[in-house]
Design brief:
single chain, 10 strands
């Protein structure tokens, strides 16, 4: 028995999220369907590093699976991509130690969120950016980003529908934003993220840039530990799971 780790990207537009759901098209279901074909119809379970919601994209999602097949990593990549739909692509495959786990061994994740901050909508980017046509003060946003760095209780920045039991304390190593010709990219790296956490943080930062929210308001949100204090959740189409880091990469 071998354990295989694969890194893959997907356009989340036409997926009902990454995790298997009954009668829904999901990333995990498509991957397992391809793996099953390679194993002569036998089911193969895929274990991703985490889940993404409907409409959310991934540049570098990671998962593992166990297999009795023996073949070089490059052959795995070719075979899977030949069977997968064109909005899902395996980027890299490697054999890993039998005790590796894509979710529990992840030490850091990076998410990016892209906002199109222009007066006119771009129809070709509608599924890949959040169209936000209002004036923004980028320097204020960049200053407020620093408030989210470090170790905090992110209860106010987590969906009320979260199923997380226990602590909602997480550590964010980096929170920053870059602006280039009307495209604003938010970059968040941390040891873990709660349900809708990135989208809620981005929503708050956009309100800072619009002058509706202050740094003092953000401090009060942290102190309140109450989702109702933190405003709107940014929509899914601007969000990308960018990279999942492990001890050896």
């Amino acid at each position: 028995m071998q354990k295989i780790k694969c890194t893959f990207s997907y356009d989340g537009t036409n997926f009902s999220g990454s995790q298997i759901q009954p009668n829904k098209r999901t990333v995990q279901a498509e991957m397992e369907k391809a793996l099953s074909k390679m194993h002569k119809g036998n089911p193969v379970r895929l274990y991703p590093s985490g889940r993404t919601d409907s409409g959310v994209h991934a540049k570098g999602q990671v998962a593992h699976f166990d297999t009795t097949l023996q073949m070089p990593s490059e052959n795995w990549k070719k075979a899977l991509n030949a069977l997968l739909p064109n909005d899902l692509f395996v980027v890299h495959v490697e054999e890993v130690a039998t005790n590796f786990h894509a979710q529990f061994d992840a030490v850091e994740k990076e998410y990016r969120y892209i906002v199109l901050n222009k007066k006119e909508r771009d129809v070709f980017k509608r599924n890949y950016t959040y169209y936000y046509p209002y004036p923004l003060q980028i320097k204020k946003i960049q200053q407020a980003c620093k408030l989210f760095e470090g170790t905090h209780d992110f209860t106010s920045f987590c969906s009320a529908r979260s199923t997380v039991k226990g602590s909602k304390v997480r550590t964010l190593y980096e929170v920053r934003c870059e602006e280039n010709n009307g495209e604003i990219t938010f970059i968040l790296r941390g040891n873990g993220f709660l349900y809708n956490m990135v989208r809620i943080i981005v929503g708050v930062l956009l309100e800072v840039g619009s002058g509706k929210t202050t740094e003092e308001d953000i401090e009060q949100m942290f102190a309140a530990k109450d989702r109702t204090f933190a405003g709107k959740t940014a929509p899914p189409e601007g969000l990308y799971l960018w990279h999942v880091k492990y001890e050896n990469n």
